[in-house]
Amino acid sequence: MASTEQSALDFITNGRSLLGERLQNLSVVLKELRSREVLSQKEINLIKSQKGNGYHTMLDLVIDKGEATCYNLLKILDYTRMQSFPPPGRYNPDLHHWLSCFPFGDDVLFQGDTCVDSDPCTKYQQSLKQRALHIIQDKWSQSMHFLKSKTISKTFRYIPLVLDTDVSDMTKIKNKAYKKSRSKKLKTYIPTDRKKLSPNQLLNNSERKILIVGKPGIGKTTVAQQVLKVWTEQEGQQGKYMFYFDEPQLRTLSCSSAPKSLRSLLFDMYLEPEHGTDEVFIDIEDNSDNVVIIFDGFVGVACNEAVKSVMTKEFLNEAKIFITCRTEAETSEFLCDWASYRVEVQGFNSNSIHEYFQWMLGSDSDSKCNAMNNPELFSLCHVPMYAFIVVACISFSPSEAHNQPYTITEMYVRIFRYCMQRHGNPDVEHLDKYIQDNKGDIRFLATTSYQALQAKTVNLTNLDFNGRNVQHAFLTSLSSKDPANPPNAFLHNTMQEFWAALFLLMVPDNIPNALRQCRTEDGKYLKHIFPFLCGLLSEKICQLIKCLISEEQIRKVSKEYFVEIIDTFLHRDKGEEDSDAEFDVEDLLFVCQCLYELQSPKACSHFLHEIDHHLDLSETDLDPQQCCTVSYVISQATFPKVQLDLTDCTVSDPGLKVFLGSLTKLKWLRFAIMQIIFWFYLQFINEISKTIKNTHKPR
Q: What residue ranges are annotated as transmembrane (predicted)?
């Protein structure tokens, strides 16, 4: 008899340990999970691949999916209890008694065998909810597989995005962008959550036409998917029917006259009822206030009459309509007259960036600490798509500085390739050819980026934003006094610097002039291009961009300019030698950053020779990424060994850990002894904590 009012999610979560210990015949439960399409085949394979007890993996996957999936699992356990539960009375607590404490309700999504006798409308509503869950999981699985043979075993989870009904400051023309300090400029990209809006509120408010706008990759589809997810989990009569059309479907519809009717749009293009099609359609028409339709990725053209009639409320005049689109699309001829409740997606705020990295990487990751303490990288990750690729690069690379870790440039190259793939939608195997075919557009965008950087502006003008050029994958429109020809900008200023570096590699004759400018007060801001340029010259990155720039040209540029780059930022003229020269700490750290990106032992050897193998970083605050770059350079030393002075430095525990890993390459290390003692004390406490935790793990 039911004796609890817990949700299915809480019930499964609280019973996780008990289920993990007592459940049996895993294959029986997995068969039902697959046949009812609760879990995908990939997830089933993941569970089966686990050594030992696969139930914990199964339960974690189900819990991550939320209330609806947990409820479905409970119904399956009820259905298979004679095979998956031990005999009643064998153990205490007893699983049979435990399950009897859950109050199985009458939610239409989980009526199991009783649904056989349901009316066609109820059955169709159940099918729509299952379809919504499949869409969410399929789209998430696609994003998790963008790197070959590398996946992260996570299911869709909504990390709060900043949703605002006001126009973002970052969409306005940024004439004074380069008058701000770099640190202030980076902070302006991270939004503040003033309105505290959520997808749940958008679904359940009284608005019937909602326009969700935002930059590419900023999270519009994530908001739409969370609306879907919330709908599958909620009870009650509001929103009995939900239909979701993504960008590929909308592009197809915009180029075709079919379907011509509402019935064909909903049933032929989305999901057809198994029985009682006429009855279901009549219910949808007569009760349009119970209908929600999402057009996710509207391209600004409503050529299809059926779609247009839904948007203008000629069909289903009481339905709730969501449209997501990029910022520039809302000024299109159709949407500019579409009176609606406008919501702008502005990406992750600081708390959400931390939450996202915590969820994806865990709390014990040194690489996570490095990323969170890198101002450029942290600011970049306000864009969820960029944050995902940064996390992927960290997950797939070692964190030790001496073992070919990920570089910042690699992350940007991965972002470049991922955006190109999304833009052209080619198979991964054909991505290189697609990039090569669009080399002209890529070069034009790189040139424009460099010219804008020279002009100290983030505004890119005179670009054709009406076609399908590759700039669509990387730029967003800014508000302007001239709506017909608005300027465009990258989603982050460091992305513009990356593209400027790409230009210098494609047109290397401009490198000497750029280096000369870096030596001047007026042009010193251009130095931020060169860590990216060094990264693009590395052998590892060469394999990713050789479809764009030949390996021969990359090797030639590296051979010709790497010494000049190092000497420029050490403020030393070519050929000049002075063993007594003192080097500015900021310059030393910047050159180490360039060398870390370049990943060249030869270049490191040249640098160490130039500074006489003496790195004086005393009285400096070193973030974990700087510790990583310096440690990498030290690790490349052969003979003589390096003298490292860290007197009165502020170094985090992960940073100190990296330095201590390079002890064999040091002639001497000067450091505050109390910090070393404190670090070893923390290490001892951490080991004790891990031992206690492992001792109390359930068997």
A: 668-685
